[in-house]
Amino acid sequence: MPEAEVRVRPVRDERDLLAVREVHTLAFGRVEEARLVLRLHAAEAAPVSLLAACGDRAVGHGLFSPASVEGSGTRVVGLAPLGVLPAFQGRGVGSAIVRAGLGACREAGFVAVVVLGEPVFYARFGFERASERGLGNEYGADREFMALELVPGGLDGVRGTVRYRPEFGWM
């Protein structure tokens, strides 16, 4: 199936957040991810929050929030959540959001992105197992916890546990 014609843009207002809430609720079949997005926005901890639309319909959303590596001041963001309406999955919407998000994070001065997700999907963007770089996470995941440098050498010498924002505490 060809990629959907999708426009990816920053989330701008409350109307967008209502659409984002619907996307995540339908994509995950539960409300927790939608609530997480709203909590991160309310905390002003959503430096890159992207809405994908086909025509006037919101069909996907991805959020990148600040994360920290214990003992390091390295500027890292975590990609979570990434959701696409079920009818639009497998049509390139999620990939378009990730590509746009990586560029926006680079422009915002972040040196790396971490994600807890499907390795096959994220490897296509250059993500690698984070443990191979000496990075762990507070969830005990290994194969699914991945990292991508946005700046060459940005993770050189950086070791430790990556901590997500407190809003992720429900996980």
From TrEMBL:
UniProt KW keywords: Acyltransferase, Transferase
Highest taxon above the source species: Bacteria
CDD domains reported for this sequence: NAT_SF
Chain ranges of the N-acetyltransferase domain: 6-149
Keyword Membrane: no
Broad enzyme group: transferase
InterPro entries according to UniProt: Acyl_CoA_acyltransferase, GNAT_dom
EC number from the UniProt entry: 2.3.1.-
Protein name: N-acetyltransferase
UniProt organism field: Rubrobacter radiotolerans
